[in-house]
């Protein structure tokens, strides 16, 4: 299950995580985001306990979105040890998302 990440919990959930983190920046009105969403949930289930997988709604959390310069959605950012280490913009296949997450492990 993907966690709900917000401006309020971003530092705790993402930057202080001891495992790799994958964050899907999305919005309700975004068609490609709705295609990617179920895949992100699947990855969250598959990597439970091994990685943090979460979703951040850009409309409700503008602070983090601006901090990382999110201009297009969906954008998926990958973090390790509190640092952004990789990213993907647009709707990409599950194997691409998983490969980038695996690279952080």
Q: Structural class, from secondary structure content?
A: alpha/beta
CATH superfamily caption: Glutaredoxin
What helical percentage do the residues reach?
Answer: 25-40%
What gyration radius follows from the Cα positions, in whole Å? Answer: 12 Å
Structurally, how many domains make up the residues?
1
Q: Mean of the pLDDT scores?
A: 97
Strand content: 25-35%
The CATH C-level name is Alpha Beta
Distance between the termini: 19 Å
What is the CATH architecture term?
Answer: 3-Layer(aba) Sandwich
Secondary-structure element pattern, one letter each: EHEHEHEEH
Q: Strand count, sense and closure of the main sheet? A: 5 strands, mixed
Shape: globular
Describe the structure.
The structure is a single chain. By secondary structure, the protein is of the alpha/beta class. It has one domain: Glutaredoxin, CATH 3.40.30. It contains 4 helices and 5 strands, in the order E-H-E-H-E-H-E-E-H. It has a 5-stranded mixed β-sheet. A hairpin with a 2-residue loop joins strand 4 and strand 5 (83-89). It is globular, with a radius of gyration of 12 Å.
Topology:
Elements: E1 3-4, H1 10-15, E2 21-26, H2 31-46, E3 52-57, H3 62-67, E4 75-80, E5 83-89, H4 94-102
Parallel strand pairs: 1-3, 2-3
Antiparallel strand pairs: 2-4, 4-5
């Amino acid at each position: 299950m993907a966690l709900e990440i917000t401006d309020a919990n971003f530092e705790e959930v993402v930057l202080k995580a001891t495992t790799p983190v994958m964050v899907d920046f999305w919005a309700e009105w975004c068609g490609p985001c709705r295609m990617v969403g179920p895949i992100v949930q699947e990855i969250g289930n598959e990597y439970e306990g091994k990685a943090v997988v979460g979703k951040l709604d850009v409309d409700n959390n503008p602070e983090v979105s601006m901090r990382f310069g999110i201009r297009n959605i969906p954008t998926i950012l990958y973090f390790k040890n509190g640092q952004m280490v990789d990213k993907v913009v647009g709707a990409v296949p599950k194997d691409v998302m998983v490969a980038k997450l695996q690279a952080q492990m």
